[in-house]
Amino acid sequence: MLAIQFSAKEQKLSLKTIPSPLINEKNEVVIRVAYAGVCGTDLHIVEGAFPCSESAITLGHEFCGVVSSVGSDVKHVKPGDNVVLDPESGCNTCDYCHNGNYHYCKTGALNNAVGIYRHGGWAQFCKVPAEQVHKLPPNIPLERAVLTEPLSCIAHGWDIASPLPVGSKILILGSGIIGNLWVSILHLQGHRDVIVSEPKEGRRELVKNLDTGFDIVSPAELKAYRTRDPDWGVDLVIDCSGYVPAMEEAVTYLNPGGKLCMFGVSSPDAKMSISPYLMFKNELKILGININPFSFPKALHWLNVMGSRYLTYEKLGIKIFSLKEYNEALQCLKKGTISKAVFKME
What is the C-alpha to C-alpha distance for residues 92 and 142, in angstroms, rounded to an integer? Predict the structure, then answer.
């Protein structure tokens, strides 16, 4: 089968022909991949700015497909079922896992994620643990289901940032796919006082396709809000960029009692400077968001209710590529001409 693999040692991404996976254990599932997304974290991995397996690894932690084969103990899915894969799980033995916080697990979660430390979905087939496989409802097409994983992370972020009363003044930093999905969710939930700041003109034009009526501005235009009105501010900043200077500046825009939701993934070496006095004086809150613990069912419900109003590829700025076009896919993402690349398997 074809697979896109990354060698951390060589810092090289390449398309290879490798053996298709076979069932070896009773609790395994082999998925014939239909669609696989390219995440911003994948770009960081390829650039050497995010940790991954030291051995050659098939990337891709956002994917969906059709069950090809199952182990003898697998009962909740069968060959032919449409499914989506939750890439993370815990060790199920540590205190974090036993307390329902497997995303803090020292050996599980991101430290053992499919597509980061285990072979993932940038391939025609992928073998995964059965407990991480979710059967799709019949009304959710595979083309849309590839967005389940990023939506599940947003669902976790929503829970942490809540309450988010309608009427809150909200600023979103970055309009890649995560920013666009946050835009969609906020609009779905009734929010209208939302500003999206994005430095790339192409992406500013893409987010307008969602037709939310939100203000879409450049970083320079964002600064002008404060210039025009020294008291201007927002109640919540949702960072979807991972860009430290943007977050540092955005903290100064927070109203008293405001919250910074750090959703974008920064380099492990990045450092951020914040005024402790401002934190004290305005009782500000900084919220970290780490993956998607137990939030896949919520994401599937969102996929159902959002439908084509929000989740068409054209509206979200998503472009489909074949595995052979992986270089073009990554370049389009880096240039900002699209919000997301999705591999469609032959």
Answer: 30
CA torsion 194→210→344→27, rounded to 10°?
50
Which residue, 303, 262, 296, 249, is CA-closest to 160? 262
**Residue 186, phi-psi category: left (phi > 0), alpha (psi -120 to 50), beta (remainder):** alpha
Q: 316-330 burial string, b = 16+ CB within 10 Å, else e?
A: bbbbebebebbeebb
* CB atoms near residue 90 (< 10 Å): 22
88 within 8 A of 105, measured Cβ to Cβ:
no
**Burial class of residue 146, CB neighbours in 10 A (0-12, 13-18, 19+):** buried
The CA dihedral of 131, 136, 137, 140, to the nearest 10 degrees, is 150
pLDDT tens readout for residues 222-254: 999 999 999 999 999 999 999 999 999 999 999
**59-117 confidence digits (pLDDT tens):** 999 999 999 999 999 999 999 999 999 999 999 999 999 999 999 999 999 999 999 99
CA distance 222 to 201: 14
Under 8 Å between Cβ of 220 and 251: no
Sequence-ordered list of residues with C-beta below 8 angstroms from that of 327, at least 6 positions apart, any chain: none
